[in-house]
Design brief:
Number of helices of chain A: 7
Helix content of chain A: 55-70%
CATH architecture of chain B: 2-Layer Sandwich
Number of domains of chain B: 1
CATH class of chain B: Alpha Beta
Largest sheet of chain B: 3 strands, antiparallel
Largest interface: A-B, 36 and 22 residues
Oligomer: heterodimer
Strand order of the largest sheet of chain B: 4-3-5
Radius of gyration of chain B: 24 Å
CATH superfamily of chain B: Ribosomal protein L7/L12, C-terminal domain/Adaptor protein ClpS
Strand content of chain B: 15-25%
Number of strands of chain A: 3
Largest sheet of chain A: 3 strands, antiparallel
Strand content of chain A: 5-15%
Structural class of chain B: alpha+beta
Distance between the termini of chain A: 20 Å
Amino acid sequence: MKPFKRRRKGGIAAEFEPNEALLLSNLAAQMIELLRDRNGSQESSADPLAQMVGMSGPIMPPEDPVLNRLLPDAYRDDPDNAAEFRRYTEQMLTSQKVTNAQALIDALIEGGLSEAEHSRARIEVELNDGAAIAWMKTLTDIRLALGIRLGIETEADMELLEQEAEEYERQTLDIYEWLGFVQETLVEAASR
Amino acid sequence: MTGRVGHNGEVTVPAPVELDQPDTDFIVELEDPWVTVVWNDPVNLMSYVAFVFRTYFGYTEEKADEQMMIVHEEGRANVSAGRREEQERHVQAMHEYGLWATLERSSV
């Protein structure tokens, strides 16, 4: 990967190896799947108007720990207010997250990612500020999901994991850390 | 203000009106009753959290960094205060950014 840099004319650009681009795209597609599993594909469609018309979403927090972190309660120790808030806002939040993940996939496709195997060309993405924020949001969602799967609940967990990850965790941890690097360069470039 | 005429015809000064304890809850509500709290989490990058505070709340770099460090070191920071509906919008926005945020009544 060639890290994100702000170009003189304003766009924020990076280059990915084909396998890196495919990984990002797959993770974003999984994120979309996960969110749609929560609300059904209809409700997760990126149509704000449809969301506004049918404002009666779920009231219980998701049982899945990843979804629970992505769609957290807005009120602590106050289940009634948390349920009411969730009922009116969760579907909108879910569809915003789907839209962000889709923006990442779209930018990679625009940069040359194709379904065809053995694509050798590097994938070059150039983001405007809005797309850069959508990328940051979805990279965050993916890292939160991987963090839950890796059992990272405290900063101490992370240090422990870095020292003694099991073999099966190592690959996930590598991806998690690489996504952190992508995010870091994106935040830095967008701040200039 | 009206006075009362006593039995003898003289006008008496009205007795001071006894008030109940002032309704402080109501007074507080006119000011800043609800706060958006951002909680520390081990996943989000410090640079990203500060970026969100600058971009979304329009904080200066200095204030964004300061708030981010409060989250990091104290486990939580009150990043905004105001009307409930407004703070609910902020909490939802924070959730879209992937920050762990909740809404609570100001304890002030």
